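FAQ
Q: What does a multi-component entry look like?
A: The components come first, one per line:
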Amino acid sequence: MLWYKAWLETRWRFVFMLGSIVLLWFAPHFLPFFGFRLPPGVLASRIWMAVHIGSVLLYIVAANFLAGSGVNSQTTYAVTSGFHGSMLFTLSLPVSRRRLLLVRAGLGALLTGVLVAVMAGYTLFQRPEGVSALQALEYIARAIACTMAVYALSVLMACVLDEMWQFYAACFCWIAFYLLQSRFAVVSWVSPLRGMTLFSYPLTAPIPWAPIVASLALAGVFLCASALVLQRKEY
Amino acid sequence: MNDIIIVADGLSKSYDGKPALRSLHLEVPRGSICGFLGRNGAGKTTTLKLLLGMLRRDSGSIRLFGEPVDSEASSIAARRRVGFVSEDKELYPFMTVDQMIRFTRPFFPGWRRDLEEKYLDLFQLPRKKAVPKLSKGMRTQLMLLLAMARGAELLLMDEPTSGLDPAMTEDVLQILADLAASDGTTIFFSSHQLAEVEQICDRVCIIDQGQVVVDGVLDDLKSDYRRILLVFDGTPPRELAGLAGIDHLRQRGRTASLLAHGDVDGLVERARLLGPTSLEVRPVTLKELFLDHVRGE
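Then the predicted structure of the entire assembly, as tokens:
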């Protein structure tokens, strides 16, 4: 039944993110209502680039957002409780902490994957040049794999920090990583952030295994670290 | 079948170097209702959390149901037989009453549907109401339901009646007493309400600064302990403090109040030799016993 709890506590985050994505998609259609008009010279490819950049940013936001809540600092409405929230009730159940993490992080990863697939699919659908099914599948799988590194780091943050800080801390880490990748070639070569975009690795290029493998390895490391932290955590 | 459900031996725990429990020793027999008393910060909640594996102990050992609890696997096995009510009565804010019950039920093979229905009726808990919309009393009731319907052999409760009105408190105390009497459930609960403890507990454990200072059967404690009130012509003599057998001594003006147990008659005889103008021996209440042991005078 842990999946049931994980779904109930994550579903609004999922719906919220889905809503944000849809809003982003329809934003260009609403702009004329607010008096904004795209200049006649703007190329379709430029619009597509904006959509793609927006989607990649949303991959990161979605991964960070869906990783929050549930693992460590379940939202509490009782002001006297400190930061452990309803974790005491969860820990009174006959379940291991590892299983708690596995179910919670597993469901979150699944939902993140769905959101990324939806966003990536829409990005490809909007691409002026057209895309083959295989190319689309390859990119969606790559985007999901690279986003898993972001997600897993956020899970680790959720195990270490209170929910209030988890989101910001994870975002800060990726900003720092972005700065690193622009300075060091090796970081850039394996960067999950570059792996997510079609600018760094176009659809016609060979499959970028380095960022994919690095992302999955990082995700594994972060999840193992999360399990260790949760195992040692006192409530 | 083991007759001692909880055994904590030499249990120590500190937070940032500050000791919360100091070599605590505790034994709770099967089927008993044991009140766990102490001031705020005495170590009650820490003890309960250690029993459930929410905290790691610095040293010492825990046995629940006769089995050592020294790993996560053994803790999980023990938790299948334990119901828990936390101090803050926190439940999942994203669930309704019904969802909380449906979520908790599958973890406990011995879940008692009859008790679930009984307490839902008794507490008049609205199944469809979301947890954040419940009053504090209702949250407490729901948590009690979730703990008691588990079919648990042991209930660990941290101030279970906090937030309940007097009528509901009375009902809950009656339920706990019934559970112990009819199902043989062992109940170990912390409380600041000495009257509640006196009403339903057959055992009492008083903890102060992380150590057990009184532990025993409530009736035995009440019959063992005596208050000896002495009035002198002037200041009580210094020799009074040196008398053997005094647990606690409090002096105010010409009067002295002694708390003693064991050979009270012998102590009374020795106190008489100091020449008080009056000497009175009284039985003690749980409140007196508690206050004398935790005030540290």
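Q: Is there any commentary attached?
A: Sometimes. For this entry: The radius of gyration of chain A is 19 Å.
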